[in-house]
């Protein structure tokens, strides 16, 4: 088994109103040094071993997990726990 | 003319859409559950608003992987008119049937009120009954209606006249005030405002009816002899 960790983030240049609101709140709490916040998503996929795993993950990201119009993705593949 | 209204789990404007086609317009209409839907034999397909699959992952993302969307792609290629409103628009974008994406509203608020729209292009099968530049009153009801596309796409949209509706007073931060766009061929329209909720005076506006009337008129001119 493998554990795939996928991070999905908004592309540079795409406005992130949610991130802006979080940044405003952090500033209100006194964390004045926070200049920008970008909110993204984190997904964990437990998958069976597959020779072609990286290509498959990229396909999944482009087809569903991320929207390539507005989002970038990054992933890592780690050894998963065999049950 | 026969309309199909595709119903997903979480659609909630399906009955409004059905009412607009069947009662306000007086044409044939059927609601089709997405799993059993066979889109053959329908003259136009309506994708209603709502919260398909609870907006999980991204609005419209899960619905865009369903089998009925494969059929939608074939129908779009075949030139069948397809209208997606609100969540229906989101589904069409996530399916790649329309260019761009929808982000959360600039002010992070769910907004539900009437907006003035400008008819930018009245040379489509959806808008031929309007005048170019006509201002119409249509309600919006969304949290993710902030249309986004890159500059290259925007230039292409402008060049091909694919921007059909804009907001007079942009409520959500949409690029170039965009409220509705078509595909390049012009037979697929997606828009955030709800024309199906503005089809008779008792609903505070009947301005949306002309959109449906345009479809009927164009269909008659193309398919009905002597029309």
CATH class of chain B: Alpha Beta
Main beta sheet of chain B = 9 strands, mixed
Q: What would the CATH topology of chain A be?
A: Mth169, Chain: A
Domain unit count of chain B: 1
Please tally the β strands of chain A and state the result.
Answer: 3
Greatest interface: A-B, 12 and 20 residues
Pick out the low-confidence regions of chain B: none
Fraction of residues in H or I helices of chain B:
10-25%
CATH architecture of chain A: 2-Layer Sandwich
Number of strands of chain B: 11
The fraction of residues assigned to DSSP E strands of chain B is 25-35%
Q: Looking at CATH, which topology of chain B would you report?
A: Rossmann fold
Gyration radius over CA of chain A:
16 Å
Q: What percent strand of chain A?
A: 25-35%
Keywords (chain A): ATP-binding, Cytoplasm, Ligase, Nucleotide-binding, Purine biosynthesis
Protein name (chain A): Phosphoribosylformylglycinamidine synthase subunit PurS
Pathway (chain A): Purine metabolism; IMP biosynthesis via de novo pathway; 5-amino-1-(5-phospho-D-ribosyl)imidazole from N(2)-formyl-N(1)-(5-phospho-D-ribosyl)glycinamide: step 1/2
Catalytic activity (chain A): N(2)-formyl-N(1)-(5-phospho-beta-D-ribosyl)glycinamide + L-glutamine + ATP + H2O = 2-formamido-N(1)-(5-O-phospho-beta-D-ribosyl)acetamidine + L-glutamate + ADP + phosphate + H(+)
Question: What can you see in these coordinates?
Answer:
The complex is a heterodimer of chains A (83) and B (227). With 83 residues, chain A is of the alpha+beta class. Chain A is built from two helices and three strands; from the N terminus they run E-H-E-H-E. In chain A, strands 2-1-3 form a three-stranded antiparallel sheet, covered by helices on one side. The N and C termini of chain A lie close together (9 Å). In chain B, helix 2 (67-77) links the parallel strand 3 and strand 4. Chain B has a single domain (2-223), classed as Rossmann fold (3-Layer(aba) Sandwich). With 227 residues, chain B is an alpha/beta fold. Chain B is globular and about 45 Å long. Chain B starts with a strand and ends with a helix. Chain B is built from five helices and eleven strands; from the N terminus they run E-H-E-E-H-E-H-E-E-E-E-H-E-E-E-H. The chains are: A alpha+beta (83), B alpha/beta (227). The A-B interface holds A 13-15, 17-18, 21, 63-65, 67, 69-70 and B 57-58, 61, 65, 93-94, 99-101, 103-108, 146, 148-150, 173. Chain A: It is an enzyme of class 6 (ligase). Chain A: It holds the Pfam family PurS. Chain A: Part of the FGAM synthase complex composed of 1 PurL, 1 PurQ and 2 PurS subunits.
